[in-house]
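Input.
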Amino acid sequence: MSVPGHPDQQPPHQGDLPPAYPPGQQPPAPMAYPGPAGQPFPVAPARKKRWLVPALIGGAVTVLLCCGGTMVIALASDPDTTTGATATTAPPPVTEAEPPSAAPTTAAPTKPKPSPTEDGPKTYKIGQPVRGGDFQFTIHGVKCGIGSVGDSFLNTKAQGTFCRADISVKNVTKKAHLFHADGTVTAQDGGGREYSADGTAGMYGNKSGAGFLEEINPGNSIRAFVFFDVPKGTKLTSITFDAGLFTLAEDAVVTL
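Output.
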């Protein structure tokens, strides 16, 4: 007995093949693996699952209707989506209308403030030492109404009247300096007029020519009279000590 699949069994030649089945006649069912007794078991034809396709289509339609409708509603109501929906902007804030302006009121007139004036030199009083240039000055007193200065032989008369200022001068620098009252000390009256020192009256009114081209060493001081020829009846209000042209110091003013 020949066993299918045995190596001694050779495949039939093409000429030995059975004739083709006539039209309309189906071939027998394929054979399965041989059974225990060597007989093949017939294989049942596969059944087509015709119910699976409609079930799948119905499920897809149900999911589409349930989930797709919800997604469409959400997209339509979401202002932040960019799939064709336009974002709604909040309306501009409503501003309250401004109340009508009240009738203009006239403000009470204010007094004009005085304009600031330029700072002048510092002022001092009689008896206070003041710095003027290379020297420190102190006025001890002022006397007016003097008609002439000197003795009976050497003297000078005033054009109006002399005002005499008793002044101490001290050198406060580290070098010797020449002091001369003319051009350094001036006097002023209430009308703003300025009077220079009279050098001739200073020579006759001071012993040994004190205060006239006198050199003062550092730390030393002299005391001298300085005269001013002023009109009769003039009352001096201040005496100014010039700081000089070659210094940044300010002039010193003593009020009388």
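The chain is about 15% helix and 30% strand.
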